[in-house]
Amino acid sequence: MPVVQKVDRVILQHPKTGNQGSSAEILLYGATVVSWKAPSPTSNEPVERLFVSGKAALDGSKPVRGGIPVVFPCFGAPTHPTHAKLPQHGFARNNVWTFNSIVMDNEAGVSVKLSLGPNPTIQQQYDHPFHLDFVVTLAEHQLSTDLHVKNTGLSTTPPMEFQALFHNYIRAPANDVRVSPLTGLSFYDKTEATEEARATSKMETREGVDVTKFTDSVYENAPGRYDVVWPSGAIEVRTINMKDVVVWNPQEEAGAKIGDMETGGWEKYICVEPGYVRGYVKLPAGETWVGQQVLTVKV
Ligand code: TA6
């Protein structure tokens, strides 16, 4: 059964291999992918590819610590005037989406669409008309997520200004993983002690970016394709319309202060987060913007 709907989640199973093969689980809360299991091209054993903290809330009481949280319409603390009432990382990850439809179900894979529109909670924080669709597609060695943002305002409505990001917690040994190619890119280091330093761009000189120390780097105008590599594995991230990418791992320095982070959880993942987070997408009324990522297991 390629698509199984539960009360709080949707389970995707690859049609070719059923429950013995690739799978994904998407909570309706936040449309958060909380599991992606896939074999490598050279094995048949599906392996969990995402990290979810053992202390993560999965009951909708707070955003999930792990998986793939959907960040929209603001990244980090809100800075745009229309986002002033929003929580960190916006409202997409802390509201319940609805299961919309099965988009694809064939030998190649299975794809489902979840949707979110203004509800009373959101309308208290954000008053621009919008409609979101989130499409998750599972293939044998791939998982893709597409965020479709529609400005449903009347033609007289001003453009909708937003940011969007997929906050991927990729399961990997944090002290042995590297991300490339980021060499030569301008980035902002959010671990700096002062606001002035955090607002000062740096140039990335490393061939492979590691997270062996507390890392919170926002790369702008990035290439849109990334290799996340460690001694026993590799995942490629390919994107469309996501011009920036964030690399984050709190290590113990910051991780031990995160209430829903399991002890030592920071050793088990790297966040490689494609997004449009430097500046804002400006979406005229009636138009739709799509941001996409494709995660592929290479090893
Ligand atoms: O994407 C990196 C980041 O913005 C970090 O600064 C850190 O705050 C992380 O997101 C997690 O944010 P959260 O609100 O989920 O605790």
TrEMBL record:
What is the protein name given in its UniProt record?
Answer: Glucose-6-phosphate 1-epimerase
Family indicated by similarity: Belongs to the glucose-6-phosphate 1-epimerase family.
GO cellular component terms given for this protein: cytoplasm
Q: Where does substrate bind?
A: R65, Q88, R93
Give me the segments passing through the membrane. Answer: none
A GO biological-process term: carbohydrate metabolic process
- Keywords linked to the UniProt accession: Isomerase
Q: Which reaction does it catalyse?
A: alpha-D-glucose 6-phosphate = beta-D-glucose 6-phosphate
Q: What class of enzyme is it?
A: isomerase
The keyword Isomerase appears for this protein: yes
- Which InterPro entries does the UniProt record give? Aldose_1/G6P_1-epimerase, G6P_1-epimerase, Gal_mutarotase_sf_dom, GH-type_carb-bd
EC number(s) per entry = 5.1.3.15
**Could you confirm whether the keyword Disulfide bond appears in this record?**
no
What single Pfam family name could you report for this chain, choosing any that match? Aldose_epim
Instruction: Show the active-site residues.
Output: H167, E273
GO molecular function terms attached to this record:
carbohydrate binding; glucose-6-phosphate 1-epimerase activity
Q: What does this protein do?
A: Catalyzes the interconversion between the alpha and beta anomers from at least three hexose 6-phosphate sugars (Glc6P, Gal6P, and Man6P).
